[in-house]
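2-(1,2-epoxy-1,2-dihydrophenyl)acetyl-CoA isomerase
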Amino acid sequence: MLKQQSDGVLWLRLNRPGVLNAIDRHLGLELIAAIEQARIDSQVRAIVLIGEGRAFCSGDDIEGLRAYLAGDLDSERAAVDPHDHNALYLRAAIAMVQCPKPFVAAINGACFGAGAELACAADIRCMARSAQIGSGLVKIGEVGHAAFMGSVVGSTRAFEIYASGRAVGADEALTIGLTHHVFDDGEFQDRVAELARRLAQMPTRVIGLQKELRNACEGRSLVERALLQEEAHRRCFSEMADAREGAMAFLEKRKPQFTGR
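Predicted structure tokens:
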């Protein structure tokens, strides 16, 4: 995996273009470690996940699947944790959701299987106009995409995408809420970079609290969500310098100077 950092933005680039950035053990562990490091790095205020070459991520490594079928879960190509054999893409997706910083998935090309769940774990998704996203798992007799894709587009639509095995183009993805932005291929990375820089200039610790609130509200009643939100309001103003700065800037009619604290 390639890492590049500038203007408060950390770019994580899946770098196995020869296999469409399929996830093997090494890449999966590397991605998880990078997310955990970014979580505690005060210089990182926003994160972008993108693929090298013509794909975002095609899913788990095919040779890893072959090893899995052979019962060889210790293979270096198997995209499972070497200790508990849990799927590494799910560990990475959970780390993305729990990371207290805004996470952008830059879907630059083919995005299927585990790659689609990684994309759906991001806070904001951008697609190149030529990119496609889908499940593909039904074609190999496997289950999935009830977790993160289901949380993005709803369980029934995620089920249709899974069961049909079809690829969803960028325009349809925008219509159904599977992506937030569609950019032309020639300007894709520049537009994503512009978006990421804007996010990095925001009160990113406050955004992290909003992510925490969003996660805590899942599956709760309306009253429970309201009470959680009230507690988050208190924490925001008591714990976060950017909350006070934003309020003072508004009262003083000036532009706030956010620091991510």
